[in-house]
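Worked example

This section walks through a single chain of length 101. The input is the sequence exactly as stored; nothing has been trimmed or padded.
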Amino acid sequence: MKDENNWGLRQSDLPEDWPNRPDGEPEQAALLIAAQSELGGGADVLVSMLNGCGIPAFKSGTLGKVILGFAGRGVDIYVPRTMLEDAREILDNPAQTGDEE
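Given that input, the structure is written out below as tokens.
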């Protein structure tokens, strides 16, 4: 059985602003997107956009990039479980540009 409290990252690997639970342990990460590629650099943009909206995020799966020049197994983007719905809302309703008045 998978240990839900051990989801793969050391606390030192988490973004600096990653939230903690009331017991002081880091909030569990939730998978936001599992992409087959790095989205043409869009994974970094997405992580930056989420961070700019106050949602800490990180990507996993770019290890192959060092050797192959691209993430061979794709990229997963994670956010804190308590912020998953907010992150999905941001992705589903991107900011509009231009005059909408």
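What to look for: The longest strand covers residues 29-35.
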